[in-house]
C-alpha cells in the first residue's frame, strides 16, 4: 500500500518535472532569437512621493511578449536566465533601452525624472557594470543621477566583498543605488553600514502585512527609524490600497510604488504621465 502511494506520487512529480524541463528548454532555445526579434519590451512603473502623490520617477521592468507564448512576466524567465547566464545580455539591453528612452523624453521637453533598472547579482560577477553604465550615460548624454541601479539585497549573500567593491565604485561615479527587496535577503545590519546605497526599497510584504501583523509593524517602524538616522530614502514596494499608502506615510515612509498608483505601463503611457505632470 505504502509502496503504491509512493509510486503514484513519484509519477506525478516526474510529470511536472518533465514539463518544467520542456518549458525551460523551449525558453532557452528561443531567448537569443527573441532578443533579436525585439520580443522583450521594457515597461515602466511609476514611483511616487507619498506626501504629494506626485510621480518622482519609475522602475524599468522587462516583459517577454512572444507571438507564440503570449505575454510572459519576468518571474517565468529571469530565474532561468540567471542560471544560464543570458540575464547579462538581456539586462544590457534593458539598461540601454531605458537610457535611450530617457534621452527621448528629455529631448521632447518632458520633466526629467530618474528611472531605475534592475541589476542581477550575476551581472555584478560577469560584467564590468561600471564601464557599461558609464558608456551608456555618455552615449545618451545623461547625467548619471538619472540612472538608478537596483540591486537585490540577496546579492550580498554570496560574495559580499565583490558586491561591496562594485557598488562603491558605482556610487563614487555618481549613480544612485537602491537596495531592492530589503528585508528578505538576510543581510546583517552591519553589512548595511558598509554598503554604498542611497535608497532602501522595502519588500512588498512590509506594505501588505503591517496592518495585520503587530510584529511586522514594529519591524517596519524600526527600519524607517534606522533609515532616517542613516540618511537613507525609503521606498515601499507593492502598495495596493489607500489604507496602506496612508499608514506608510504616517509612519514616515517617503516614497511608494505599487498597483494603487499604477501598474507597470508602456513607454507611451509613461510619456502621457510625464506630460500630465508638466501641465500641473
Ligand atoms: P522587483 O525588481 O522587486 O520588481 C517589483 C515587482 O513587483 C514587479 O514584478 C512589479 O510588477 C511588481 N509589483 C509592483 N507593484 C505591485 C503591487 O502593488 N502588488 C504586487 N503584487 N506586485 C507589484 P515583475 O515586473 O513581475 O518583476 C518581478 C521581478 O523580476 C523583479 O522584482 C525583478 O527582480 C525581476 N526583473 C524584472 N525586470 C528585470 C530586468 O530587466 N532585469 C533583471 N535582472 N530583473 C528583472
Ligand atoms: Mg526592482
Ligand atoms: Mg523589489
Ligand atoms: Mg521583488
TrEMBL record:
Phosphoprotein recorded as keyword: yes
Keyword check for Phosphoprotein: yes
Residues of the full protein shown: 273 to 552 of 552
Domain EAL intervals: 24-278
Protein name in the entry: Stage 0 sporulation protein A homolog
Function summary: May play the central regulatory role in sporulation. It may be an element of the effector pathway responsible for the activation of sporulation genes in response to nutritional stress. Spo0A may act in concert with spo0H (a sigma factor) to control the expression of some genes that are critical to the sporulation process.
Organism superkingdom: Bacteria
UniProtKB keywords: Phosphoprotein
